[in-house]
Structures are given as structure tokens and as C-alpha cells.
Amino acid sequence: MKWSSPHFILICIFISNVLSEKQVNVKIKKIKCEHDPAIYNTSMLCKIKPTRNGDGNTTILFNFHEPANDFWAQMKFYYKFGTIYRPFMVDLDVNICEYFKNPFALPLFYQLMKKVLNEEFPNILHPCPYYGEVGVRHINLNKIVSRAVPQVVPKGYYKVVNRYHLSDNRTFLTLTVEVYVDAIDPMKSYDMG
To answer: Is residue 193 in a domain?
Structure first.
């Protein structure tokens, strides 16, 4: 995992706010999935189905046709300044198989995973090997992401790039999500752009 001390402070703020009960409004604008079926022999489905209330149901599934025993997850956040997305606060690179052997090795990451993901995605958060269908069907991703976003994050457009790769850095899956964040309480929101 790579991050500097300013990132550590921001991540501490992020985690403390994740553990609070207040939320921000998040609207998923776009989901884009790319995969390389030659690595781990995977197949993928990634879509948002609109619903009447406007939130939409999200399905993100990928199938491992052979057991996956060693892969990494890299998560990068970008904030939109004007018309350009620039890096923003978080750049994590975690060996997933090693992490789930000892989740307390990264306590901040563990708290985020436990608070948000463990309740919604139990089929994703388990030790290796990963085999067969992994992912979620027909979930309201806006509500789940709203629980994860801290109150102190500036309102605006964000892009989160999740890249899953092998230890030799060959990428087999990239999931890009573009969101708009707006605070429920306007006094808690900062406008950076």
C-alpha cells in the first residue's frame, strides 16, 4: 500500500465520518467496466437499470472460470476541477488475498469495508480463492455509496477507479464509477470548484 502522511490524515477524517450516522447525497452518474478475459479467464456484466424513483438498480458481476488465488485491488479517487479530473486524497493498492488473511493489518481500510461493504456484499469479502460468480445484483448503489462518503468531502463530481491486477501488474478488471456528491446539510459541504 502506498500513501503519504497528508493522505493518512485525510483518510482518518474519512474513516471517522464513515462511522458517523449522517450521510451525504450521492448520485451515480456513470459506471464503466473493462476486463481482459485472457487473465483469470473472466467474464463480466456491468449495468445500471433505471427505476421510477431515479436511483436505479446496479448490477456488477464477474465470473472467475478458474480459481483466483493472488490479485490486488487498486483504488484511486479523482475530483473534477473545471473539466478535468485530478487525483484526490486516496490511492490504495492492496493485495486482496493477503488482506483477507489478516484484515486488521489495515485497520482504516477494515473499518470502511466492515461498515459499508460487509453488510451488502458478503459474497465479495472472503478469503481467496475466488471462483465462480462474484459481485452484486440489483442493488441501490447510490444509498450504499452515500453511507461511505464522509461529511467533510467537498461537493462536486468524483471519479473512482478500481483496478484489479495480478502481482506482475497485469490488469484483468477495471471498474470506473463517476458520482456527484452533495451534502444533506449545506453547512457541512465545501465547494472546491
So the answer is: no
